[in-house]
Specification:
By secondary structure, this protein is mainly alpha-helical. The protein is globular and about 55 Å long.
Amino acid sequence: MEWIFFAVLTAIFDSLKNLISKKGLEYADEYLVAWASRFFALPLLLPFLFEIQPPALGDRFWLVLPVIVSIQVVANIFYFRAIKVADLSLTTPLLALTPLFLIVVSPIIVQETFQPLDIAGVILITLGTYWLNVSRRGDASSPSLGLSAYLAPFRSLWSREGTR
């Protein structure tokens, strides 16, 4: 049951991270905020490095590490640029789509397999994220939404700079 406590803490701290980053982007560029978000977390996380047993590293670890780090740096800069130019309410829900991408990429990269319940969970997360972004026209209690409203989240991906 303690996982509920940690799940709630994770949600709170992740939201605070996004809010503080958004506020910081009013005064600094995305490069500095991306660097600062990682740098200032380091003193908090460094003590845990000495508490864990490191796993065995494969032969290709040192070949893959620069590629992964490069991708992560670029992704962080894009992320902070997105929250700088758009509302958090438009950009952060897109992070909920990460499992959808991982369910496609993980079997290719690490030969990971998924159970039917895993796939069902990812589909529910994706549908929930989509439904939250459906643009409702008129009264929220209206029983029918037009095709335009159902396509709004997809149009938003291309028309708004932050979501693009």
